[in-house]
Amino acid sequence: MSDTAEPRPKAYWSRIVDAIARHRALAVLVVLLIFPFVLPYEALASNIVIFGLFALGFNLVFGYTGVLSFGHAAFFGVGAYGTGIAIVHLGLPWWVAMLIGVLAAGVTAMIMGALAIRTRGIYFAMVTLALAQCVYYIVYQMKGWSGGENGLNGVIVGQIDLGFASIDLLDPMQKYFFTLTFVALAIFIFSRILASGFGAVLEAVRENEDRARACGYDVRLTKWLAFVISGLFCGLAGALNAIHLSVVPIEILHYHMSGQVVMMALLGGMGTFFGPFAGAIVFLLLEDVVTTMTTHWQLILGLVFMACVLFFPRGVWGSVLQWVRR
Amino acid sequence: MSHDTPILAVRGATMRFGGFTALSNVTADFPVGELTAIIGPNGAGKSTLFNILSGAFPPTEGEVLFNGTNVAGKRQHHFARMGISKSFQITNVFPELSVQENVRVAVQAMTRRFDLWTPRSRYREMIDRAVELLRVVGLENHRGRLASELAHGEQRSLEIAMAMACEPKVLLLDEPTAGMSPEETVGVIDVILTLAKSCTIILVEHKMKLVMDISDQILVLHHGEFLAKGAPHEIRANDEVKRVYLGEGRK
Ligand SMILES: Nc1ncnc2c1ncn2[C@@H]1O[C@H](COP(=O)(O)OP(=O)(O)OP(=O)(O)O)[C@@H](O)[C@H]1O
Ligand SMILES: [Mg+2]
After folding, report:
1. CA–CA separation, A69 vs A262, rounded Å?
2. What ipTM is given for this predicted complex?
3. C-alpha distances in angstroms, A227 versus A106, A205, A246, B118?
4. Given ligand 1 and candidates B14, B20, B174, which is best to mutate, with the most ligand atoms within 8 Å of its CB?
5. Tens digits of per-residue pLDDT, A305-324?
6. Which of A55, B139, B182, B202 could form a disulfide with A276 if both were Cys (CB 3.0 to 4.6 A apart)?
7. pLDDT by residue (tens digit) across B199-238?
8. Do B95 and A208 touch (CB under 8 A)?
9. What's the predicted TM-score (pTM) here?
10. Topology of the domain comprising B8-246
11. CA distance A277 to A308
12. Does B99 contact A at CB distance below 8 Å?
């Protein structure tokens, strides 16, 4: 190839992007560290990292394995309810509660995955949607535990004592960094999984299922495992959301939530590492700005979304990558 | 297991798609170390037989024997792991992965299918093996390119390298030279003859002269039915084969 001879203005950006890609987990972290200082208020920053993590987990099946799930609200929601119920009804310490939330989401993903994995394409999306609706109604009906349509209130973790220091979760800035600690850990693990041998198998399945099968991979089992891992990450996002909001609204399990995470991944760029975070930032900032201007914010958001899909089919980050690498 | 048990065989294999019978009661042996060619007009059922032999789907009726054991009905990934590997009639690679990664992933399928933690860049042995296989098919200088950027003939060669990744005992090649230039075809034939020294090969091929030159035995299918089987000179002399196939080819 011949692009070494003449210096191009883009080469500079290309090198920066390559450097970012090489240290991708670190790069996200740097951005997230300065985040609460540049955004209008810290709660928005917390919201963005939580939804960024949700979209990141979702992207493991959507962008990397090539499977569209329309039921990821279930994992986000079960993670949140699991944590909330453990704190409110069982009075367990916050970290045990989070663990319960994440594991509950994982178990939900195991079951949903096992039922849905035999179908492909749009059928998979429909089956996951239907199963997630089942989860919604089950939780809705368990009013004693979940609070039904009022949601679960009083998920309050005030003070966390670490022995050498204590964190006050009622302070928005401290809460942000508490949340970010978990998100950062998750990003590191996620990045490691993508780079692993299993990450390569996922890409192979996305690229060509038939070929992957002929190579000797059990495609169904691979997809199922990806689904479960994805569920765990989304469950963690849900657990953090419960603690962040101090309540678990029933809407967290609604299929709108499943749609929202698809939109975030598409907006940011599916199958790219930074895409989900970029998508969460764009989506939530837009929502934040537009809701103050008009009650028809969903309409505006829909239009922006459509414009993005039509003109930037690779999403925000995907388009940046395409631009510098061309 | 007796010495002359064929490494792969089908017994009374029938394949129906809905009401249509694509393959009807075919029985054939594929002896160890031999190169068998399957020929027959379009729609004869060659690819269908390949799909049954490689486990893509089980036959509606009949058995697939690997070293004398019935393996029909096992899921496809087991076939590759047992050592039955195939290349597709229609080029079937991982388009957005690099050429090297295509082969490396195929190599990985034998050992590290669920390794969630080790970075793939540390799989030194797999990478070396992938490069070696690419050298065999003459693609070592294209390692870094995307598979989708390769020319058609190069993609066909890449398929062969991928099929070789599992160190197969039986290699099924479905029209490996389809759409290739005469020069490329010569190159691929060389590769196939090299591979034939270390494994049993079953080949679907339309280029008659080539089939006659390189095969140990030829199996002729027609409308899903077994028509004839034998050494190249026997097939050439078979009247029925001449009528339905060789004659047609000359038109
Ligand atoms: N999945 C399928 N569903 C329905 N019919 C099929 C299917 N696969 C193959 N067939 C039919 O079975 C017959 C045999 O097909 P097959 O692909 O085995 O032929 P072939 O000998 O490989 O032909 P070609 O030389 O064109 O590759 C054809 O008539 C084909 O249309
Ligand atoms: Mg065919």
Report:
1. 8
2. 0.90
3. 9, 13, 28, 20
4. B20
5. 888 888 888 888 888 877 87
6. A55
7. 999 999 888 888 889 999 999 999 989 988 998 888 888 8
8. yes
9. 0.91
10. Rossmann fold (3.40.50)
11. 16
12. no
